[in-house]
Automatic annotation (TrEMBL):
Species the sequence originates in: Blastococcus tunisiensis
Signal peptide range: none
A GO term, aspect molecular function: methyltransferase activity
Keyword vocabulary terms for this entry: Lipid metabolism, Methyltransferase, S-adenosyl-L-methionine, Transferase
Official protein name in the record: Cyclopropane-fatty-acyl-phospholipid synthase
Length: 429
């Protein structure tokens, strides 16, 4: 008599080709309790047939993400483990990977039919972002809506994830043992030194977040700072922090698009983790706008994530676009430098920080997991799962070199020539 395969065994056979592997590098437990796969492998749990329905209707990363965000797929191990296994072998791996064949997709449908679990396409989890439907891409209104979708999920939630520094960009680690707060302090100080801030310097901080760089520049370097963001929640907390530190005369926080700033010139401009929201086609205009706000000899520091080896265009079918950064576009370093210099700015220095971001993301994941119950209370279980998934996946992408992050320092020609690199490497202020 033919051997009857369990639900888990059928799922394992059907999912392997969809994920681009000969055999699943994870151990799978199905909703009926059956288990299949290597005993030593990371354990992935399909808690509901709904997870399979999502994969039938969305046979790419979006189906997996929807099932995870909804709690229909879970892991009973370190989330890095199954991701690392699939990143090493399958369609989650960096680089080009062919889509599942028609035969592979039909096999997944047949498996669902055999198990009697197919049905209508499930609605996406409520955390899925639909900003793409509103207005022209990268118009001021749509950009504000896209930023709000990511950043206005609750300041209490971000405090738990980011820690007391409230810095939402790559830290600079002298050593992994220094800890996140010290590493973020080092990054803020590095930015200020690269921008050659001095008492009385006028700084424009584009995408100022919760005001951490603005506060550091005013407190430690005596700069006068204008910080701009289009997030209402960020601005509210940033203003509160400015007042608490007694710096209202030195730091102004505005809810303002960078395209609306008209009170230059500034001695320096920082743009930390903001250019990813601009859009590749708009980058030359972005650089020209910021360059026009600099005095001759003034400096711009652009700190941005890159998709290594290529630039990404708009793609609304990805997990990141639907759940994390709607309308975000990552630009390869060469394309970014080309755009930044197209309006006459000159490059002074380029510094890659890829490995530093991997350490930063792992620290944020630890914060989230250590405060999981509070994070769920602050933003909901689905939103907490979104952040955990995207930060784990991003950490691995930085570690294997698919994602990079770079600080490009430029100046507007005129005035004295820029000094050599030691002016921001030396200790002291």
């Amino acid at each position: 008599m033919a051997e009857t395969r369990t639900v888990a065994e059928r799922l394992t056979a059907a999912l392997a080709p969809i994920l681009g592997v000969d055999r699943l590098p994870v151990r799978l437990r199905a909703w009926d309790g059956s288990v299949a796969g290597p005993s030593e492998a990371p354990l992935v749990v399909l808690r509901s047939p709904q997870a399979l329905r999502r994969l039938v209707w969305a046979r790419d990363e979006l189906g997996l993400a929807r099932a995870y965000v909804a709690g229909e797929i879970d892991v009973e191990c370190d989330l890095y483990a199954p991701f690392a296994a699939l990143t090493a072998r399958g369609r989650l791996a960096p680089g080009e990977s062919p889509a599942p064949s028609l035969g592979d997709r039909l096999q997944l449908v047949r498996t669902g039919l055999e198990l009697g679990v197919l049905g209508r396409e499930p609605p996406p989890p409520p955390e899925e972002i639909r900003v793409r439907r509103y207005g022209r891409r990268h118009s001021r209104g749509r950009d504000a809506a896209a930023v709000s979708a990511h950043y206005d999920v609750g300041n209490d939630f971000y405090r738990l994830v980011l820690g007391p520094s409230l810095v939402y960009s790559c830290a600079v680690w002298d050593d992994p043992a220094v800890g996140l707060e010290a590493a973020q302090e080092a990054k803020l100080d590095l930015v200020c030194r690269k921008l050659a801030l001095r008492p009385g310097s006028r700084l424009l901080d584009v995408g100022c977040g919760w005001g951490s760089l603005a506060l550091h520049a005013a407190r430690e370097y005596g700069a006068t700072v204008v910080g701009i963001t289009v997030s209402q929640e960020q601005a509210a907390l940033a203003r509160k922090r400015v007042a608490e530190e007694g710096l209202p005369d030195a730091v102004e926080i505005r809810v303002q698009d960078y395209r609306a700033v008209d009170d230059g010139p500034f001695d320096a401009i920082s743009s930390i983790g903001m250019a990813e929201h601009v859009g590749r086609a708009q980058l030359p205009a972005y650089a020209a706008t910021l360059g026009s706000l600099l005095r001759p000899g003034g400096r711009l520091l652009n700190h941005a994530i890159s998709w290594v080896g290529e630039s990404t265009g708009p793609n609304d079918r990805t997990f990141i676009a639907r759940y994390v950064f709607p309308d975000g576009e990552l630009v390869d370093l060469a394309d970014m430098i080309g755009a930044l210099t197209s309006g006459g700015l000159e490059v002074i220095d380029v510094e890659p920080l890829r490995q530093h971001y991997a350490l930063t993301l792992r620290a944020w994941v630890r914060n989230l997991e250590e405060h999981w119950d509070d994070a769920v209370a602050a933003a909901g279980a689905g939103r907490a799962r979104v952040w955990r998934l995207y930060m784990v996946a991003s950490a691995l992408a930085f570690e294997v070199g698919k994602l990079g992050v770079n600080q490009v320092l430029l100046h507007r020609p005129g005035g004295a020539p820029p000094p050599l690199r030691p002016d921001w490497l030396r200790a002291g202020k």
